[in-house]
Amino acid sequence: MRAFIYVSLFLTACTGDVEEAAAPDAAGNTGVVENLGEAPPPAPAVPDTPEDVAAPPEDALKTESGLAYKVLKPGTGEQHPGPRALVEVHYTGWTTDGEMFDSSLKRGRSTKFGLNQVIPGWAEGLQLMSVGEQRRMWIPAELAYNNQPGKPAGMLVFDVELIDFTNPPEDLAAPPADAVKTESGLAYKVLKPGTGTEHPTDAATVQVHFTGWSADGSLLQSTEGQPQPARFRLSTSIPGWREGLKLMTEGETARLWIPEELAKVPGAPAGDVVFDFTLLKIDKPIPAPSDVAAPPVDAERTESGLAYKVLKPGTGEQHPEPTQRVKVHYTGWTTDGEMFDSSVQRGNPATFPLDRVIAGWTEGVALMVVGEKTRLWIPEELAYKGKPNAPHGMLVFDVELLEILPDPPKPPGGKAPSLKPKGEGVDPHGH
User: Fold this and answer.
1) Domain that holds residue 380
2) Which of 113, 397, 398, 427 is catalytic?
């Protein structure tokens, strides 16, 4: 859990759009990264409950810890994962009464995780395997969940196939002699040259894949295999990420040795960290309007202090009610011209209930019709009101109302289900 918390804090320190790690899976993995590529290979069929699920058969081998296992299909490789390897597997798990409680095969996608992030039985058993091997493991309760509430109880049985693994780099403890050091103490080494020529600026949003380790080789987190790369604005990332990525170009892969003082996040464990980054894309900020500093004379004003100007008339006639959900595209700037968020740049509209956003959005979007694009100058008291880690002062948004969404159906007898906003990035929802 320690590693997951550490990287989650890293990511939440960035106010940009960064994928969060998944919830703990059946192996006890708290930093699972699933292989959700656009066209993953079809998963094998989910196996039937084994006949020997109740207890290990006589031909099963046992380790000193009490783990029992049986090789179902030999592997094709000769190497084994180390104790801190990043592994990719397919698996199915049963309790001894034959109930299947989890399966990557059923989900149709393999799973990646660090061996330092899973239950002891998995960590021990997978280190005995080679790539391509399929193995059945009988894991006693003390090597599984130890009868924790809410977890599968007793001995657990897993069929596991090791698809691939990567052991941590050997140079994590200290930068090698050929690494370049900056004045701040950051060290970096180019692992693969980039194809671009431009470097990101603080105002840029970057799309990256990364894998991070603590100096002792423990895997912190990896975005490899996720459907989308991590995205965040450099100006909001931790100092070591910001400095290192500004040295890179698109297509480049580099290793960063980040000293503790450049990796500090409130609540995170202490220590130096190492990250391998691949810089996939630099998203330049959308230029600010010429009137971003203050509303122009032809802007309309409401009694609350909100100013607005229609940039493009809409095609609809209906205005959204404050309780309705809307789908919009938007870009936001501070009055000094810095873009802090944009669904347009992400290519992903935001959907949310209109009464669950900052007051300036609730009022301003309610004045619009579908198809309309409006610029809103939102005073601070109708925006974030000085909220920490949010843009300060008056904010300017260009908003296009794409759709007024119908109310969700009410269940029989009943109350409509609660609605959770689905925005990304520095959301205007006021949460």
Assistant:
1) 300-405
2) 397
